[in-house]
Specification:
two-stranded antiparallel ribbon; 4 strands
């Protein structure tokens, strides 16, 4: 994941520090959980028997495949345009 976060923002093209980069889930894909939450085990995978466990690297990679890497600012702009945030806050 750190290697991917070293890439520039998909939208503005700026190469920011990794701490500024975020995985934006693309429309049309079902979001299992936030990638950072999956990596840090803040959310757990619930198994059919009701037990839970941390997500595997393969599951995290599959979640990342549903995303584009963007900087925090571009991520907010994308989210706002998708959810009409500007109208809601006016």
């Amino acid at each position: 994941m750190a290697e991917q976060k070293a890439n520039p923002c998909h939208d503005c093209g700026v190469q920011h520090p990794a701490t500024v980069m975020e995985f934006d889930h693309l429309p049309g894909h079902v979001k299992t959980a936030g990638v950072a939450d999956m990596v840090q085990s803040r959310v757990l995978h619930t198994l059919p028997d009701g037990s839970t466990r941390a997500y595997t690297l393969e599951e995290i990679a599959a979640e990342i495949a549903k995303c584009e890497l963007v900087c925090a600012n571009c991520h907010r702009l994308r989210s706002a345009s998708r959810g009409n945030w500007a109208e809601a806050s006016a």
